[in-house]
Amino acid sequence: MKTPLIIAGAIAILSPAAAFASDDCPNVPRDQWMSDAAITEKAKGMGYDVRSIKVDDGCLEAYAMDKDGRRVEVYFHRGTGEVLKVSEDD
Fold this sequence. Notes:
Layout: H1 2-14, H2 16-24, H3 36-45, E1 49-56, E2 59-65, E3 71-76, E4 83-88
Antiparallel strand pairs: 1-2, 2-3, 3-4
């Protein structure tokens, strides 16, 4: 009975999302975060139409439309604004 729980826990720990959060989105003090407005402008310059921004897995995550009209999630480093990942929104 404990084996399925152990396996599920191992999968959760070793999942790409867990690795993504810890490796690519380091802990940055709140006073060093880029503002939502700055992230929106940066994304706009890259061709994204930002709909909303939230903090997710340590990154600033922008929900946006790309230049082809697809919904995407763009993950930005909170301190530098570097794009760390772009994925299609489910």
